[in-house]
Amino acid sequence: MKYAKTFSALILLQLVAWTAAHLYFSANNTVALVVADTSYSMKKNFPDVKRWIENYEGNSRYSTILIGTDKAALGELNELKSKDVIFRTSFGKLSDENLTRLYGQVTADKRILLSDGTLKPSGWDVIEF
């Protein structure tokens, strides 16, 4: 009987700890801004970029992911009807001015740029393809 009480107490302690962690992380989401470079030179890498976004989304349970391109902000990733919307256009060239104009005022805990590495803006984590 002593073992059953000890085992029950440990199970209860685990349950309380997991519930508390879930409630804390649900209330304190992190915001990640992910910007995909949709310039013409990146067109061949779009499938790899899409796969990276899907993997990042799968590994970011307690995060709000804001998605955009170097040409337009698209909003929250989970509100998009399809991830193909991200890659609907490929023209022009990525510029630091566009990033600053579109995303300079966005508050995010993490800023990720998915690009070919030709531009490395300060304050951004650049993932090269």
Structural description of this entry:
- The protein has one domain.
- It has three helices and five strands, in the order αβαββαββ.
- It has helices spanning 2-27, 46-59, 96-103, and strands spanning 30-36, 63-69, 73-76, 110-115, 125-128.
- Strands 3-2-1-4-5 form a five-stranded mixed beta sheet, covered by helices on one side.
- Strand 2 (63-69) and strand 3 form a beta hairpin.
- The termini are far apart.
- The model has no long low-confidence stretch (mean pLDDT 90).
What is the element layout, followed by pairings?
Elements: H1 2-27, E1 30-36, H2 46-59, E2 63-69, E3 73-76, H3 96-103, E4 110-115, E5 125-128
Parallel strand pairs: 1-2, 1-4, 4-5
Antiparallel strand pairs: 2-3
Radius of gyration, CA atoms, in whole angstroms: 20 Å
- The H/E string reads HEHEEHEE
- Strand arrangement within the widest β-sheet reads 3-2-1-4-5
Oligomerization state: single chain
| Secondary-structure content class | alpha/beta
Cα shape: elongated
Strand count, sense and barrel status of the largest sheet are: 5 strands, mixed
Helix content: 25-40%
- The total of helices stands at 3
